Amino acid sequence: MFWRILSGLLVIGLVVGCGKKEEAPGPAPAAPAKKAKTAYKALETVANGGSIQGAVGYKGSDKDGQITISKDNATCDPGGTGTRAEGALLVSDGKLQNAVVFLADITEGKSFGAQEVTVDNQQCRFHPRIALARKGDMLAAKNSDAVLHNTHTYLKKKGKRKELENIALATKGAVIKKKLKRSGLVDVKCDAHEWMQGFVYVTDHPYATLSGADGTFSLSDVPPGDYTLKVWHEKQGFQSAKVSVKAGAATTLNVTFK
Known about the structure:
CATH topology of the domain at 113-204: Immunoglobulin-like
Shape: globular
CATH architecture of the domain at 113-204: Sandwich
Largest sheet: 5 strands, mixed
Helix content: under 10%
Strand order of the largest sheet: 11-17-16-13-14
């Protein structure tokens, strides 16, 4: 009798278990939406604007790099030395030249017009080595040498390079213009002369400048508020600092690379 009862219970359990409907898994939780970047708003006037001024210092070795001239020496190396200074690390009295200084998070401020930025090939160097531009500006690639050059541009972002333009400049005096459609750091190379190096830093706004020969910089007509000031140098990378701008006042902020 006991075994009959136990067998019946097992059968009932199997029937109930098999008849139970499994619930379908629900939809996976949606990934959080990415915050859209706020477009810069140009104002007719900046009321009670302030300014940011300072200097970019450098405490490391001030020895610039050397490059070897290996091709088209009559044009690229008229002095016949075979080498020359790289021109990347320009330091005077502990101050760093050609550092890009800009506000990273400004959303509105003074207006600006379209401009043309020229990057010239002169004696197998890019002139200027560091240029500033704004999104939508025209990049004029120019060849002042009697040898073949190309201005090959890449957008550098998060350790990767994305090709933008490959501009062939076959003859002396050639000028080809291309619109700068992306903001960020643009790496400029010449495939014909591998030692050539230049950069164009493209922003969405006019609050960007280069440090001078004495390391100084200035940004004017900045709306009052709190900002992140960034400084970039091709050999030193980025530094950031918080800065508060008061109405009608000058704020001093110095940044030092070590």
